[in-house]
Amino acid sequence: MLGHRPPKDANSSPTDEVIRTIDLTKIYSGEVKAVDNLNLSVKAGEIFGLLGPNGAGKTTTAGMLTTRVVPTSGTAMVGGIEVWKHPAKAKAMIGVVPQTNTLDRSLTVWENLYYHGRFFGMTSKTSRAEADRLLKQFRLSERQRAPIFALSGGMAQRLMVARAVMHRPSVLFLDEPTAGLDPQSRIALWEILGELHQGGQTILLTTHYMEEADQLCSRLAIIDHGRMLALGTPSELKASTGIDSAVMVSTDGDLDVLSAKLKANIQGATDARVIEGKVLLEVKGTHGVLPAVIQLADASGITVTDLSVSEPTLETVFIRLTGKDLRE
Q: What's the CATH fold of domain 242-311?
């Protein structure tokens, strides 16, 4: 469990819209529609998440908002500025942490921050002070003179976030910020993002990690094939399933037969289907559901090899919307 969870109600009544897309569309060669008429609105002070599987259009959407991908049609606005009409102005208002490591390997940790500040017009004195401050905030002071290649993946990611916020952008964009990080590094980065959020930083992140979206995001949009499937707070999205429990049943018997029997005979069952070699049973109410599943399977001559029950998750929401696993 996180030692520090950013409050979902920080800046709970933001009124300033800092990101807006209107029918934003990107079609690649071969008529591949990566983003399909996407309409988003992000308010100041939010951590807003784009959640979806690989290839859903998350990175392309972030790219169009940060001048890295040219839209086919539609409008992308940040801070009231149309990104592709005024790219230079837009770049001054955003901080970007891409999926790949873009740190300058010819510079030290401290120099990566110092020269970033100078590039954005800071005086030498201010840039020095900000570099020192951020290294302390991001737990990197002891590595300030180290070369970039000496950093772990988690340290490098923290340094890229520190660099991205050094010029105090209106919006911080993070594309799959914890992909490939170990659990300790992931939690450390979550805590830092929570601190930035508490300080009023607006953040848009893309992720395919459900726990990350649940822990961090004030609101999120679930997208797939470039289209928005659902929008709301994590709690609202999970409540939209209309169920209380998700029961996963493993068996070496006929999954389709068991699925049909569970759906027809378990009290409160709203749906049952085969997902990745298991039966997912969705139920309203929880009392006595596990014994009832085992009893029904035994009566049908089917042996249950594993059984688990959980509250609805964002993955449950996604499966209900698309019929496939979120991590494909």
A: Alpha-Beta Plaits (3.30.70)
